[in-house]
Design brief:
The chain is built from 7 helices and 15 strands. It is α+β, with helices and mostly antiparallel strands.
């Protein structure tokens, strides 16, 4: 953690904290100008986000996620926090009829969404697909056991979970309006002194001329799913990084970006991803559930 640092600067109406986590630029905004009060809270929040990253990142060899993925069919002891996240993942799997599947991360062995035209063959996809399937993940409050050759990836819920933990910690620690932004997934708490909403910029996908959409957020959370930075392009076709767990291929014709508002960031994030998994029916899926959203095609 030695290379992790925090920068605190003054803004017009308070203090802003900047740091990096989960491969993303992150910010905390406090409508409070007393640095001696805000600073220790900011450090607690940043370290909580880093704790979650260290525990659940598949990119860290010593993380719990990596330990589970290297278990080779053996049971791995888990704590209650992990049990609750796995339970949530099961609910998402069932609600999506198997489309939202945390075991499909193994498909990234053959899919690298780097903007190139490197599309795997159907034979390559078919070779990996047997190792995808949440029904092959067995867990209870004490342990988790994966089927042989399987892996899980907390990436679909991890950052959103960190946002909710961070905003909850701030709400418990200080009486002021605050906003947590972890790489575009965010939540706010408290009532601003001027009673105005937070003005949140949402990056729209595109080339050099891409613009920013501004959303006014009074309460709750926002999460965005899209292919602004992670995609493939081959023979005039753009391939989104949102993968169909049943076919092993990118979802056909999803929006370029979907931003969803909800009470918590985990809810918003899952709804955004679930809608993207519907492809061309993404907007209808959220409209039918009366979920506030902003889609970009």
């Amino acid at each position: 953690m030695s290379n992790r640092h925090i920068e605190i600067t003054e803004t017009d109406d308070g203090l802003m904290v900047q740091f990096s986590a989960m491969a993303s630029p992150c910010e905390l905004h406090f409508q409070h100008k007393n640095r001696s009060i805000v600073e220790p809270i900011a450090y607690d929040v940043c370290h909580e986000v880093w704790r979650i990253e260290d525990k659940y990142s598949r990119y860290k060899s010593d993380s719990l996620c990596s330990k589970i993925n290297a278990s080779n069919g053996r049971a791995v002891i888990i704590d209650n926090e992990t049990f609750l996240l796995l339970t949530f993942a099961t609910q998402c799997f069932e609600l999506s009829d198997g489309l939202f599947d945390m075991s499909c991360g193994i498909l990234r062995r053959i899919w690298t969404f780097d903007g190139s035209d490197n599309i795997p063959t159907q034979m390559q996809v078919s070779a990996v697909l047997p190792f995808v399937g949440w029904d092959g993940v067995l867990f209870d409050q004490q342990s988790i056991t994966l089927g042989q050759g399987m892996e899980i990836d907390f990436g679909g819920i991890g950052k959103e979970y960190a946002v909710d933990k961070a905003i909850g910690l701030i709400h418990q620690s200080i009486d002021c309006a605050a906003l947590v932004n972890l790489g575009g997934d965010l939540a706010c708490c408290g009532s601003r002194d001027d009673h105005q909403p937070w003005q949140v910029g949402v990056e729209q996908p595109g080339g050099e001329d891409k613009s920013t959409m501004v959303v006014a957020l009074n309460r709750g959370a926002l999460a965005t799913s899209g292919d602004a930075k992670r995609f493939l392009h081959c023979n005039g076709q753009r391939f989104s990084h949102i993968l169909n767990a049943k076919t092993g291929w990118p979802v056909v014709n999803p929006p370029r970006s979907m931003t969803v508002a909800a009470d918590t960031c985990m809810e918003a994030g899952v709804l955004a991803t679930l809608s993207m998994l519907q492809g061309h029916n993404a907007e209808t899926f959220l409209t039918d559930q009366e979920v506030q959203h902003w889609a970009i095609r």
